[in-house]
Design goal:
The chain is mainly beta and 1008 residues long.
Length: 1008
Amino acid sequence: MKSSTLLAVPAVVAGLAPASFAQTAASSITGTIVDATDRSPLPGVTVVVQGTTVGASTGPDGTFSLTLPPGSSTLTVSAIGYESQTVDASAGPVRVALKADVKQLSEVVVTGYSEQNRKTLTSAISSVKGDALKDIPAASPDQLLQGKAPGVQVSANSGVPGGGVFIRIRGSNSVNASNDPLYVVDGVFINNTNLIATGLGNQVSSNPLADINPQDIESIEILKDANATAIYGSRGANGVVLIQTKRGKAGDKTRITFNTYHGWSKAPKQYELVNGPELAQLENERFLNDGGNPAQLPYRPVAAGGRGLPEEQQTYDRLSDVFRTAQTQSYELSAAGGSAKTQFYIGGGYFRQESIAKPTNFDRFSLRVNLDNSVTDRLRIGTSTALTRTHRNVSSNDNNPVGVINSALFPRTNLPIYNPDGTYAKYGSFDNHQALIDNLNNDAVGSRVISNVYGQYQFGKHLTLRSSWSIDFNDMYENNFNNTLILAGQPRGTATSFLSRDITLLNEQTLNYSVDFGEDHSLQALVGNTIQKNTFQRTSLSGQQFPSNDLTSIASAATQTGSSSRSQAGLLSFFGKATYSFKQRYTADVSLRADASSRFGADNRWGYFPAVGLGWRLSEEEFIRNLNVFQELKLRGSLGKTGNQAGISDFAARGLVQGGANYLDLPGTAPLQLANPNLSWESTRQWNVGLDAAVLQNRLLLELNYYDKYTSGLLLNVPVPRKTGFASVVENYGAVSNKGFEVQLTANWLPRTSAVQWSTTANVARNVNRIEKLAAPITSGSRDIFRLEEGAPLYSFWLYHQTGVNPETGDAQYKDVNGDGQISVADRQLVGNAWPNYFGGVTNSVSYKGLDFGFTLNFEQGAKIMNMNRFFLVHGGTQSNIGYLREQLDRWQKPGDITNIPRLTTNPASNNYGGVVQNLSDRYLEDGSFLRLRTISLGYTVPQQVVGRARLNSLRVYVQAANLFTITPYSGLDPEVNSQSGVSNTKNFDWATVPQPRTFQVGLTVGL
């Protein structure tokens, strides 16, 4: 249907047109519905025969047809954003011009437990419609938000299908607790805990949101400030993402839609390694620099006892065996429609995405049923239910020498892939990449049910009671078998099996009151409560010593062990909210939520989270109207408090003991955790000021926000004296702040009446993160590369600062921070962080008749990345089984050379690659800024009169490319990376990580 604007339009022009459509003898009626302003056809308008359930909706050309029951001739015509009309169809042809409804004209925004006109909105909420997300080749809906919502930073940890995603709304608030937003799908609170237990090298191996089919999404709202999120209390500190799925509409005849696309993906860039002769030259040079005898060079003639001359060395390409042209397939079939009494949406889909790195892939079968039924004029019931089955063939990369990419990237290029007898050749701690591709058997099968059932009763015109019951049932079953052909299976095979289950049960009641007092006053109020219970359990089995590689079940193992665990937590909440608006000019919001959590001590279980918001539409003031400049100008501000308890143990406040401390085959227990009955909520205070403006007849829209967040009482593991028998205890200590701004500008370049429609939306944001209070510095990540300390941001890199390479000696030079004339651990310093200075995106769309063209760019500026591939592969000869990147060829070789790569040597005294520094130098810390063409697409919708001949309702074909280019100074494969995503307080760590693929796809959408 036509999109609404911020302007009111002239009065209705409605009536019966000259007889271009006629009622047949069989009481069949056809007609056309148009916009009263520009006379353009209105698709999606509901036409119902008054007093019956007979109805239809208009097609893309604004036309409809239906059969009139005997004795009925009155039609009710309605559409969102327009005033409803009643039309007599007995006289024959029908042509109706709908006028815009001033009360409905502004966009309706979904907020916490209610909806609100955007005109009166006082909160910072970003909206993304489903049409802006369609056909993007991503497994999960959170990835679709990249570059589309200001202040929302989204990046995939790797290019693994269905893998983990980093998403932050206005920065990170916590150190130990979770920083992920709350996801709510059709009223169901979603668990976003990774359930895969198989160790995959510190990467987050799965994204639970990949269980949600993006094709089912109608819209996404991102709640960012405290006034919007405080209604969610302890769940809202990190922002809230509200996902609404598609539903049927009253009066719509059943429409069946088939959507499919097929894509081909490749790595846009490959690692550049030295070849065999170059490697031999580097090794000979390193040998001489270390004082070796020139007559004993390692690469000298075989006859002289060497490994052969450098030019005799072969080059073995392992990476080409790993990377492939991967395929993506998506098939979606849906049906939607409804009568005045019952509306439905049913959608089923299959999605398969291969990784560009063998042998990983991701499969998803999905089914969604959304049903709404008006039992009576007052009682309405319904359900939103999604069933999903996923399969992942997972493989290890990142910080794991037996990962597939590691085993292809790190072994020296002159070493054969196979032994002379044809068996897999293995070097050092690295497995054979081909053995892993051929024999990895790590299957993870997920089953998920996300369901909500509701009943809604209308007490008169203004009061509505709604009660809902929901469940998120997430089950992951893993079976792994390592045969004797790979290192993990030696000497006689190993196997593990995990069954993990995460269940959230939720019951909610809300009582909504909405009333207008005359023309000037409106009031919305609600009260409610929720009861939530979360249960997590895991059973694990392992087996060793198998009789054969063909017997893979743990029952066949000679040694079998098992364990199980279970935890449970509850949350009880009461909340209320009221919104008052005067003349849609002045608006005030106030809300309060009280949460009680079982995770805290009895005296600290309750947390209280208030918020207030104010809005002033200056465009309704006479002195602004007289300027004749603004169609909309609104100031808004909010202040509130939210909480956080996510990410800590279900029993974090309690003293715990554990079994398993056995002695002489007798069972025993041992202390596990210190009690802290004073443990309480993390709390985040946030204030926000904003400005919304529309000029040039709503063709230029501006949204500005500035915010300040302060999180105190961090749920932190605080060190305790060792004499207690414990290393730490969870306490409320520490503070983190986030401050920043967001700007979004939307330009509708041409009038609505133009045959060409062209719009561009650009957004940019900046967030400044700072640790305000911390008991003591904390290091994290591999080799303690990250450090948390007061006054610095989270995700700060703690390294030695290399000032250069001495052009005379070829040795690296480092900053002597403490000035003692020596390089020691005291000279490590914070040399940058993983936060971008600015990030955002640009979305552009153009349409002309049936043609549509669009693209999306997203960017980050200023973030740093630790390139661990260079850390290991520009090693100067210190790694005996590891090869070199081509960058090593730029090393210092003779006096006078100017370079930042020191001479080859294993001498620790030089600190070039070993010694005290141990390569922990900012030489490997790079600028991760990038500008990426996220998607670009071209589509064509075949005219209705053409597809109608084939008895189709619509037909669209399109081609699309994703990640077509990325402009970046980063030398690695992809600046969008975090291989240590499974380790808290780390980000932008590149270590043998699968890059984001470049994808080309073709698609087809057919409406029946």
